[in-house]
Amino acid sequence: MKNSTIISNENLSSDDDFSVDTDHYIKDWVIPFYHVKLGDWERKKNALLKIWEHNSKDNMISGDLHDQSTDYGNCNNYHSLIENVLYEDITDGLHALNLGETITVDTAWFQIYDNSRYHPPHNHGLGHLSLVVFIEFDEDHLPTTFIAPFISLRDGNVMEYIPKGVTEGSMVLFPSGIMHYAPVNQIESKRMILAANLTIDEGSRC
Ligand SMILES: [Fe+2]
């Protein structure tokens, strides 16, 4: 089985204009962010698409205007199936972030972005971690873009973070409460993602 590949933290910028000495920063408030290329991707992709086919496809609803197509809010009950496919990878991420031992996938949903479709800024509410897996993603697609919870001290602008090196098979873990959006899909081929909310378990799982 091919191993997953952790993508290095691009926030550790070597650009002097952006790197800062953090000796006097509040280190408890750093933002957890984990990007991995899922190993054994073809098998996992087929498994995820099968879950979509059998549990989600018929419930996909396109929003008005340019909203994406999603089955979010349709009382999805396939989160345990998603957990079966991704549990090891999610747990590896949890351990890398040093946030706990075990985790539960509470809710999951799929989203499809045809040409001109997007998802405006939003968050996933109070919670622990969320994830996005890029299931169909061309090199000309733009990844989920994250918005800093505070404005720039340098110029007062909103600060965004666009994860580097996102490809099909990338999985990103991030805090559920952080604002993010999917930029407009500007090409003909569809972009498809899996999203999920995760709860970090108290104690160990039996
Ligand atoms: Fe989201």
Describe the structure.
By secondary structure, the chain is an alpha+beta fold. It has a single domain, classed as q2cbj1_9rhob like domain (Jelly Rolls, Sandwich), CATH 2.60.120. It is 17% helix and 28% strand. It contains two helices and twelve strands. Strands 1-2-10-7-12-5-4-3 form an eight-stranded antiparallel β-sheet. Strand 3 and strand 4 form a beta hairpin. The longest helix has 19 residues. The radius of gyration is 17 Å and the shape is globular. The structure holds fe (ii) ion (FE2). The site of fe (ii) ion (FE2) has 4 residues, from loops.
Bound molecules: fe (ii) ion
User: What is the CATH architecture term?
Assistant: Sandwich
CATH homologous superfamily? Answer: q2cbj1_9rhob like domain
Oligomeric state, counting identical vs distinct chains: single chain
Strand content: 25-35%
Cα-based radius of gyration, to the nearest Å:
17 Å
Number of distinct beta strands = 12
What are the defining features of this structure?
single chain; about 210 residues; alpha+beta; Jelly Rolls; eight-stranded antiparallel beta sheet; 12 strands; about 30% strand; binds fe (ii) ion
